[in-house]
Amino acid sequence: MRQNKFVPIYNDLQDKIQNNIYEPGLKLPSENELALQYNTSRETTRKALNLLAQNGFIQKVQGKGSIVLDVNKMNFPVSGLVSFKEVARNLGKEVKTNVHELSLQQLNEGLSQMLQATIDDQVWCVVRSREIDGEKVILDKDYLLQKKIPRLTREVCEHSIYDYIENELNLTISFAKKEITVENASLQDEELLDLGDHKHVVLVKNFVYLDDATLFQYTESRHRLDKFRFVDFARRSRG
C-alpha cells in the first residue's frame, strides 16, 4: 500500500516538535518554505500541517501561520468521567499513586452540604498524590459516603477506587458535575506536590453520582498548572 506523500513530512515535523527543535510558541516555516525544504508541493505540506493541527501539535492562526503548541502538557478529559488509572493508561508514562491519608470521618457542615447528606453520616477521606514520570503533579482529595462505600482499604486507594466500586461493590457510576478554577497553591499543595516555582494549581471539583442519581463522592483534584491541557469535545446543535 502506497503511503501518502504528506505522511513522512508530518512524521518529521512531529518528531522535531516533540524533541523541541521547534519549541512551543514558535512559528513553523510557511507552506511554501516547507514545500521547498521537502521538495514537494504546497498542497502536500498543507495536508501535513492540517494533520499536525488535528493532533494538537500546532495551532493555525490566521495572519500568523502555524504556531507550535506545548506537547509536554498532558490531555486531561473534562467531559469524560474517568479514573486516574484510566487516564494513565493512555499517557504512556510511568505513573504512581501515593496514599497520604485514609480515614473515616464524621461529616462537618460544609461537606454535608457538598454531599447533600446529614452530619450524622460518615465519610471516607482519601488524600492521594499522583506521580507522572517521577513528579508529583496531581493532589486528589476524595470524600466518599460510607453508607454507599461500606469498606475502603489503602490497597484499593493505591490501585483504583472506581475499579473497586464497579467490579467489587457492583455499583454503577453514572455522571459527574465539574467546576474548574485556578487557585493559589495551598500549604498542603506545597508539601505533597512537586510545584517548583509554580504558585498556582488548577482545581477541578467533581460531584459524582451513581445511576440512581445519588451523589456519593465529592473530589477536589489539584493539578500543577504547567502539566495539563484540559480538553473537551463539543458539538454544535442548531436551534
Automatic annotation (TrEMBL):
This is Trehalose operon repressor. The gene is treR. It comes from Pseudalkalibacillus berkeleyi. NCBIfam families: trehalos_R_Bsub. PANTHER family: HTH-TYPE TRANSCRIPTIONAL REGULATOR TRER, MANNOSYL-D-GLYCERATE TRANSPORT/METABOLISM SYSTEM REPRESSOR MNGR-RELATED. Keywords: DNA-binding, Transcription, Transcription regulation. Residues 3-71 form the HTH gntR-type domain. SUPFAM superfamilies: Chorismate lyase-like, Winged helix' DNA-binding domain. PROSITE patterns: HTH_GNTR. Pfam families: GntR, UTRA.
